[in-house]
Amino acid sequence: MKIGVPKEIKPQEARVGLTPAGALTLLRAGHQVAIQKGAGMLSGISDSEYKEVGCEILSSIEAIYRSSEMIIKVKEPIPEEYNLIQADQLLFTYFHFASSNQLTQAMIKTKAICLAYETVEEQGKLPLLIPMSEVAGRMATQEGAKYLEKTFGGFGILLGGVTGVQPANVMVIGGGVSGTEAARMAAGLGANVTILDTNLERLRVLESIMPANVTPVYSNSYTIEEELKRSHLIIGTVLIPGAEAPKLIRKEMLSKMMPGTVLVDVAIDQGGCFETSEPTTHDKPIRIKEGIIHYAVTNMPGAVPNTSTTALTNATLHYALELANKGWKKACKENKALLKGLNIARGKVVYKEVAEAFDLEYIDASSMIQ
Fold first, then answer.
1. Domain extents in the chain
2. Which active-site residues does the annotation give?
3. Phi/psi at 220 (5° precision)
4. Whether 94 contacts 312, CB under 8 Å
5. Burial class (CB in 10 A: 0-12, 13-18, 19+), 177
6. Which of 141, 151, 262 lies closest to 191 in space, CA to CA?
7. Which helix (H) or strand (E) holds 320?
8. 2-126+305-368 belongs to which CATH class?
9. Cα–Cα distance measured from residue 118 to residue 127, given in angstroms and rounded to the nearest whole number
10. Which has the closest alpha carbon to 263: 240, 288, 238, 299?
């Protein structure tokens, strides 16, 4: 199969869809791999490293799309790429369709095969979300601590405090991968941490693995409203696979927070779990509303591309190899995890939550692989 890796052109996105090690695996399996010139540069990977393993280097994004049967990316295509995508071309990347009707309609129009990292599901887990969730969770605490500084309009509190001075209070909403990593980082810096989840079994696990300064608590509206009154940093990580994230903090709740509180919305790719969140970028990462700092960068792991690119390839390569070896139809027929990754195929919406998000006709994905 002819596989193409374009340079990411979403603003401030520095990751690349495939490392040289990943490319070598595909090449040794008999596939062709073309990399756009400079695609790996911001991740610390030179064109010569790709050349050394046998990749072809193409000068333009147009050449990559024109010559490839499968595109391996990191982020969803942006409008400049829409017209480059061909019918029946397989796109393997993060899409987060439920947060963008424009993207959904554009991909329907292309009649391409859109297989989304974020909905590939195996044994109840989302293996292609996990590495980036780990990065985003850890970054959420790191960024939250920074924006608590008075320089940025924050409360002016050091996350871990110092001798004789109370540390900051951190509330993490969601005890999944991102939430766990965020809580672990905040605890490691010495903060008082409360982590909320609605799954009692998960809370028991968190109780057993977290340090003493982390308190797992059952999540409900009352608890969230009480905790936000005393929290200096609030990190939201709740999402529903393939669907828009639930809004757990409403606009009217901002007035109950301490001025200078920081909200970090890790779920912003899926619409955000704070009602007042608006997508931001790495060059302008925050918005201040009613004295509350909102950090809602849509590609948080893009700030640490060297780490993120390697972690992502480690997770995606097995599936990319299967798709290349078998073709998308056979691969999805034989691997139900990949079948769940299908979101849009040949102009049809085949992921229920995406169809429901925009009131579109839903077609069962299994009907597309017969």
1. 2-126+305-368, 133-298
2. 96, 269
3. -155, 170
4. no
5. buried
6. 141
7. helix 305-326
8. alpha beta
9. 8
10. 288
Positive or negative, the Cα torsion across 109, 113, 116, 122? positive
**Of 127, 121, 85, 130, which is closest to residue 103 (Cα–Cα)?**
85
Number of residues written out for the chain: 370
Q: Which amino acid is at 310?
A: T
- Name the CATH superfamily, with its identifier, for domain 133-298: NAD(P)-binding Rossmann-like Domain (3.40.50.720)
Query: Do 2-126+305-368 and 133-298 show the same overall fold?
Result: yes
> Which tokens in the block code for residue 205?
């696990």
* Tens of each residue's pLDDT in the chain, 370 residues: 999 999 999 888 899 999 999 999 999 999 999 999 999 999 999 999 999 999 999 999 999 999 999 999 999 999 999 999 999 999 999 999 988 999 999 999 999 999 999 999 998 889 999 999 999 999 999 999 999 999 999 999 999 999 999 999 999 999 999 999 999 999 999 999 999 999 999 999 999 999 999 999 999 999 999 999 999 999 999 977 777 889 999 999 999 999 999 999 999 988 899 999 999 999 999 999 999 999 999 889 989 999 999 999 999 999 999 999 999 999 999 999 999 999 999 999 999 999 999 999 999 999 999 8
Task: Find the helix packing angle between 305-326 and 130-147, rounded to 10°.
Answer: 160
